[in-house]
UniProtKB/TrEMBL annotation:
Pfam families: zf-RING_5. One of its GO terms (molecular function) is zinc ion binding. Keywords: Metal-binding, Zinc, Zinc-finger. SMART domains: RING. Gene3D superfamilies: Zinc/RING finger domain, C3HC4 (zinc finger). PANTHER family: E3 UBIQUITIN-PROTEIN LIGASE TRIM-21-RELATED, PROTEIN CBG20824. This is E3 ubiquitin-protein ligase SH3RF1-like. The lineage of its organism: Eukaryota, Metazoa, Ecdysozoa, Arthropoda, Hexapoda. The keyword Cytoplasm does not apply.
Length: 94
């Protein structure tokens, strides 16, 4: 899963996947912060409020986590993956 603007994979930090309201498209927080106006980069519909206030697309984050788990051998725990999981756990309980 990657952002339509920067073509980088989403993550749980500065490239947090944000759902644009009301159109439902998703773009990363970093790119949304750099947009000159509050318009969806995909469909040009106005979205409400500052990017940080938009809901996070946890489905995308969970999908990313799933992809990583499948592509990484179980015996080699990736420290970055561990951190992402911790961040996810914190974000989900908030
Ligand atoms: Zn982006
Ligand atoms: Zn849109």
């Amino acid at each position: 899963m990657e952002c339509v603007i920067c073509a980088e994979n989403f993550d749980a930090t500065d490239r947090m996947p944000k759902v644009l309201v009301p159109c439902g498209h998703t773009a990363c927080l970093r790119c949304l912060g750099l947009l000159p106006d509050s318009r969806c980069p995909t469909c040009r519909l106005d979205f409400n409020g500052p990017p940080t206030e938009l809901p996070t697309n946890f489905t995308v984050l969970q999908l990313l986590e799933g992809v990583r788990l499948e592509s990484t051998p179980r015996h080699a725990e990736d420290p970055a993956k561990k951190i992402l999981r911790l961040l996810l756990a914190v974000a989900l309980t908030e």
